[in-house]
Structure formats: structure tokens, C-alpha cells
Amino acid sequence: MPEEIPRWRARLADNREARRWNLTSLLLTLPLLLVGYYNYAGDALRVAAVAVLTAAATEFVAGRLIWKRRSLDDFNAVAIGLWIACMLPAATALPANNAPLYAIAGSMFAVLVAKIPFGGTAHAPFTPAAAGFAFLTVCFPHRVFAYLPSEIAPPLHGRSLALLLQQGRSVVDGRQLAGVLLGQTMGPMGTGGILMIAVVLLVMFLLKERRGPAFASLGFVAAVALLAFLIPRANGTGVPSIWGDMSIRLSSVGMELCSGSLLFAAVFLLPDPAILPGRWFTRFGLGAFAGALCILLRYIGSFEESVCFAILLADAAMPLFYRIQSEIHQVKSFREIIMGHEAPDGWGGEEMEAQ
User: Fold this and answer.
1) Would you state the torsion angle of the CA atoms of residues 116, 119, 123, 129, taken in this order, to the nearest 10 degrees?
2) Tens-place pLDDT, residues 83-138
3) CA distance 228 to 51
4) Which of 66, 98, 305, 320 has its CA 20 to 30 A from that of 193?
């Protein structure tokens, strides 16, 4: 009789791919947390610790009660908590500084509502971290966008880039670009290091397991940049317009990409392997669709940041992209049959040559 494999070893083997993905995600996110720590000191670590512990504890309890098993082996709950924390302010500018409470609420919602009922990491139809932050945006908009300036690295302006962009003001010029790329702006504690996020996206293309999902991020960024260039908001009014010289258009592209959690969500939340379709072109198309939705919601929405809503809407449209992928595959297979490369009985290449 073959030797029976211990249950703990079988469980680790089953979760190997998911665990590797989430551990890589955590390693790629940690530099952004360090930027948050540099800007906001202990406040950033406190919010991150509360969010991670809440997500892990919620999944542990719910997994034992609902699934009758442990489900923390893949570290997905840790990644969810850390991503939600990065999109929150380290401390709010309002008198009652309860940023950790919102980290608790967002992490619990992400795990209990967007993940556990659907069967876990590999089966959730919506990105849990995006759902958690969208919940906070709807319920507590005056809290999650009440950013407090950093005393260690003072921001370039007294307002967040997203709010300045709503007013049509541009701050991305040659003198201030370096500060914007290094995160010296008011905003979420872990999403301001634009230069570091760009490096993470480059690293994703260098890693074999990350290269395919990274096409979704690339499509997202391309769509946002194109629409921001064609219909700029950094025109002094904040109202999208097709008019504007080259400097206004380029400034609008820079402001859209560098503001809020847009680039962070595109790189970390959008390329979820449990949701994305299999082919690179459908992943790119899904990312472009999400990017277009994000720009649309920014133009017509009332919230300062709408990227998580765009990702959730793109998740809801996922069956359409699977259908497109299937149709393209069928057309390709039919063409191969007609050309005789893949010929079943009665459709061989000899028959075509005889004709």
C-alpha cells in the first residue's frame, strides 16, 4: 500500500500555486509599505497591522465555521488586508482619528462578503480588496479621503492630486515631477510611490508567472493614458474637454496616472489569476475596459477615487471576455481546419489540393 500523505502536507501541496502568487505579491507590496512608513511613521504600520490581522482572523473563523477547514495557508487574507491598508490614509485629517477602524471594516467586508461565500481564493468572482475599499468609499467617503499631510516628507500641495485634478489644476511639471513620483503628495499611505509601482510592473513582466496577468495592468494603463490625453481634465476647469494644447494633454495624463490609488490598483488588484481570462489579448482587453471605466467614473462620479468600482465592474463583465476568447479560439481552429493544418476525416489537405 502506498504511504499515506499527511493532511498538512497535502494541504500545502494543494495551495502551492496560490501561496507562491500571494507571497510574491506581498514581497512586491512591502516596499510601498516602507514608503508609507517613511512618510507617516508608526501610523502607517498600525493601520497595516490592524487590516492584516483583521482579514486573517476573519478568514480563520469563517473558514472553520463555514468550510470546516483552515484556509490561511495561501496568505491571500494577508495580501487583502495589506492592499486595503495601502489604499487608506495613515491618519485622517478629521478630529476623530479612527483610521484603524475603517481598516477593520474594509478587511472584514472583503473577506466575509466578497470571498468566503463564493468558496475562497480560487473561486471569488470579484476582487476582494477592491470590494472592501469600494464598501468603505460608499459608506465613509469623508473619512477614507480625509488625508493628513506627512510631517516627514511634506507634500507639494495642500490637497491630493485627485482633488486638484477635479478642479482642473495641474501640478505635474518639470520641477515637481520628482516629488510626485517619490510620493510627496497627499493621498493613500501606500500608493504614492509611483516610481516604485512602475518598477513593480516591470518586475512582473520579468517574472514568468506574472507576465501573463501583467498584460491586464498594461491594458489598464494604456487606456487611462489614451483617454486622459484625448479628453484632458487638467485644463483649468476640471471639466473634460477635447480642446487643449500638448502641455495640457501630457499634464492630464501624468495627473491621472499619479493620483489616488489608480496605478496601485492596476498593478496589484486587477491581475487576479482567479478571475482573469487565459489569453494575453483578452487580459489586455479586460485591462483596457477597466481603465476606460475608471476614467469614465472619474469624469462623472462624485467620489475622489473610483478605481475599485471600475475593477469590480470589469470583474462583472468577465463572462463577456471569456466568450470573446472562446469565439476567437473557435475561429482560429476553424481556419486551421480549412487550411489543412488540423484536418479531421473528410477534411484533409489532399482533398483541398485535389479541388
Assistant:
1) 10
2) 999 999 987 766 556 778 899 999 999 999 999 988 888 888 899 999 999 999 99
3) 33
4) 98
Contact 28, 200 (CB under 8 A): yes
Query: By C-alpha distance, which of 279, 304, 309, 305 is closest to 293?
Result: 309
Number of folded domains that form the chain: 1
The model carries a pTM of 0.85
Say what the pLDDT of residue 221 is.
Answer: 97
Q: 158 to each of 100, 175, 189, how far by Cα in Å?
A: 23, 17, 15
C-alpha dihedral sign at 91, 95, 97, 98? negative
Is residue 139 assigned to a domain?
A: yes
The answer to the question of residue 188 being in a domain is yes
Q: What is the pLDDT of residues 232-248, one digit of tens each?
A: 988 777 788 888 788 88
Q: Which structural domain, as residue segments, surrounds residue 208?
A: 7-316
Encode pLDDT of 232-288 as tens digits: 988 777 788 888 788 888 888 988 998 889 999 999 999 988 888 888 888 999 999
Give the model's pLDDT for residue 71: 74
CATH of the domain at 161: 1.10.3430
Question: Is 215 within the bounds of a domain?
Answer: yes
